[in-house]
Amino acid sequence: MAQREEPRLEAARLEAARLEAAQREEPRLEAAQREAAQREEPRLEAAQREAAQREATQRPPGGSRYGISIPFEGVAAADQAALLSELPGLGYSDVWSSEAGAWDAFTPLAQAALLAPGLRLGTAVVPVFTRGPATLAMSAAAVASMAPGRFVLGLGTSSDVIVGRWNGIPFEHPYERVRDTLRFLRRAFAGEKVTQTYPTIRVDGFRLEKPPPVPPKIVVGALRQGMLRLGAREADGVVINWLGARDVPQVLQVVREAAACSPGPETARSPEVARSPEVICRIFCCPSQDEDTVRRFARTLIAAYLNVEVYARFHEWLGHGSALEPMWKAWDGGDRLAARELIPDEVVDSLVVHGSPAECHAAVQAYVDAGVTTPVLSVLPFGIDPIQAVRDLAAGRQTRGS
């Protein structure tokens, strides 16, 4: 019996000795990390100043930005890089990725950081549920380090479909999960060692080994009041989408009222951000004058989104319930084809910008006039050449600005 137990006991003794050595070593490692951080501080401050100067010089004339979503819809993977390289010369200032059922959000931005170093990069948005907090911090820190001062991390809840059905993760307490993740990331990006039990996440002893030289701005994907207020009070702004230009003032009223309140204890916003949070808006756009084709394809896309619970409640809040109620009833009754046909033209035209490049630009400008600070075009390849569309939309902007 004793002979059988001996290997197990020996293994236990070795493990205990390893843990004891690690505990003795931990204070020395923490002291070394603190010393390294102190040596690094002047370089980090210089990097932050340089990033601020770059941000000021790269901001387009008039102070407005002009972004586009990547990866480009309808463009082969092999052709993405060449088009990315064109963007700065075309007049685009930003590229923003998303994450649902196609590519992840970070890989396209890493490619853009190398191919188009003049662009600002952003996620709109990364779900907080589908990565652990430490993994999310590492992914974001990698992109932020590749593009110091040019990366904005957009966080969001995603949806019950993506989180629950596709990933098998309980979609619970979404507001609290975004808030807790935001607060954790602020500390992680600052190089802190984080040990804390938040209401929805627990982190025990995590420290980024390579914190980004310039901590990225963090914005919150927001639809209704709760997230809009969180983005305005504790983050650096909000990401909005699936709304018309005429809906923007209702959303911005919530943002501005929240921004005027005292920031929460966990915030790391600058006074400038506190006064005027950034408002990024993804705008679905198809530069085509074939109204029938655009509306036919757009109805399919709109039905797929606006029947998701969070978007349905969003449009009820915006006051579109009566226009969309027939579509919702048909969808709930299982008649998906009828649901698509019951979306009114005016709803389609409000949510998907279309027409000539000049008409598209005028429609995008309406969002800016309503208070959007960063319009981000999401080009829909409905019967058009998507590569040419990216060029035409930029050319339309430059023509109007000249």
What order do the helices and strands come in, and which of them pair?
Layout: H1 2-58, E1 67-69, H2 77-90, E2 94-97, H3 106-115, E3 120-123, E4 126-127, H4 133-146, E5 151-156, H5 160-166, H6 174-189, E6 194-197, E7 202-206, E8 217-221, H7 225-233, E9 237-241, H8 248-260, H9 271-275, E10 278-286, H10 291-306, H11 309-318, H12 321-332, H13 336-341, H14 345-351, E11 352-354, H15 357-370, E12 374-379, H16 386-401
Parallel strand pairs: 1-2, 1-12, 2-3, 3-5, 4-5, 5-8, 8-9, 9-10, 10-11, 10-12
Antiparallel strand pairs: 6-7
Helix pairs in contact: 3-4, 4-6, 7-8, 10-14, 11-12, 15-16
Question: Summed up, what is this model?
Answer:
With 402 residues, the protein is an alpha/beta fold. Helices cover 56% and strands 14% of the residues. The radius of gyration is 24 Å and the shape is globular.
Characterization of this structure:
Strand 1, helix 2 (77-90) and strand 2 (94-97) form a beta-alpha-beta unit. The chain folds into two domains: 58-282 and 356-391, TIM Barrel; 290-354, no CATH class. The chain is globular and about 80 Å long. With 402 residues, the chain is of the alpha/beta class. The longest helix is centred in the N-terminal third of the chain and has 57 residues, at 2-58. The protein is built from 16 helices and twelve strands. Helices cover 56% and strands 14% of the residues. The protein starts with a helix and ends with a helix.
Q: Any descriptors?
A:
402 residues, alpha/beta, TIM Barrel, 2 domains, eight-stranded parallel barrel, two-stranded antiparallel ribbon, 16 helices
